[in-house]
């Protein structure tokens, strides 16, 4: 028993000794538990970029560079236009007027370093060359400077964007809006019936359109050949379109209403048929027409449908004709010539300078003769001319839409009637 007590005492002593002994320091400081901070989304290194611009077609790129159409600026910078034009070096103009040659010297004097290449092609050829170049994509023409008697401008060239309107801002206040659509009008002309004043000192020997269908005037009326000149067909088409006025003129002349044929639905077509059957003399050019009835010293002469602007040669003493201002229902048909920039023009800025120049008093001078009219309200007609404000009493305005739609029918009807 004493031995057991002794053993227990020894164990207790050992335990006390151990508990009182100093603790060994840890070999290293306890490390905190690592924690991972929440990650923010990675930021892009660059700011968001706008989507790339679509690639422009060559034609759209040209339009943008030329600042035409939807790319036209709100204000025209003429100093910049002129500087760019001088880098282009020239401007190519397709015209239906021989007087384009008269602009070369004054234009090149005003804009040194820019050559004016003006081509007098005639109306039909201007249209055909314009169409051919646009369809082939071979662009030579800069400026379209021509009439649209056959309606191609509004019905064909503009819808296909073969031509682009450009109106110098300095013209906006002096050119009525009606003369700026579908393109800027460069001038008005008149195709009218004229007579020889040496042989008819008392005035025009024809009083009524229907007289031109009677035996007295058979073979004595001169006209540019409708079978080869589309503008003449358009003049005839416009006359045909005025069926009501021609019916009144018929009754005034014959004292009764028109008696129609099976192939003539109204007085317009009846006049065209009777006129063709009366064998007018068809000339190859407008110059030949006016010479045929108004040359000086003639002993016998008829009458002729000619350009009123050729009256300038009467003023110069080279011809002797006057317009038949007393003719009923009218003496002729008013036409219009337009000026525009050709699509794809190699020299668009020089084209802008030309369009601006030809509508100044200096640039319009070759056409500012009796028989031509500027669309500008601040340019007066020459002395002796019928004032433009009164012109509508003497002429019908060409019906380009009707001419475009009816030109083939009118030409064919004319050809058939010639053979009857």
Structure description:
- Residues 1-37 have low confidence and may be disordered.
- Helix 4 links the parallel strand 1 and strand 2 (115-120).
- The protein is built from 15 helices and eleven strands.
- The chain has two domains: 58-188 and 335-387, Periplasmic binding protein-like II (D-Maltodextrin-Binding Protein, domain 2); 189-334 and 400-418, D-Maltodextrin-Binding Protein, domain 2, CATH 3.40.190.
- With 420 residues, it is an alpha/beta fold.
How would you sum up this structure in a few lines?
The protein is of the alpha/beta class and 420 residues long.
Number of helices: 15
Which superfamily, in CATH terms, is the homologous superfamily of the largest domain? Periplasmic binding protein-like II
Number of domains: 2
CATH topology of the largest domain: D-Maltodextrin-Binding Protein, domain 2
Distance separating the two termini: 168 Å
Q: Got a strand count?
A: 11
Assess the beta-strand content as a share of residues. Answer: 5-15%
Let me know the largest β-sheet.
Answer: 11 strands, mixed
Task: Briefly note the structural class of the backbone.
Answer: alpha/beta
The H/E string reads: HHHEHEHEHEEEHHHEHEHEEHHHEH
User: Outline, from the CA principal axes?
Assistant: globular
Give the mean pLDDT.
Answer: 90
Please write the CATH class name of the largest domain: Alpha Beta
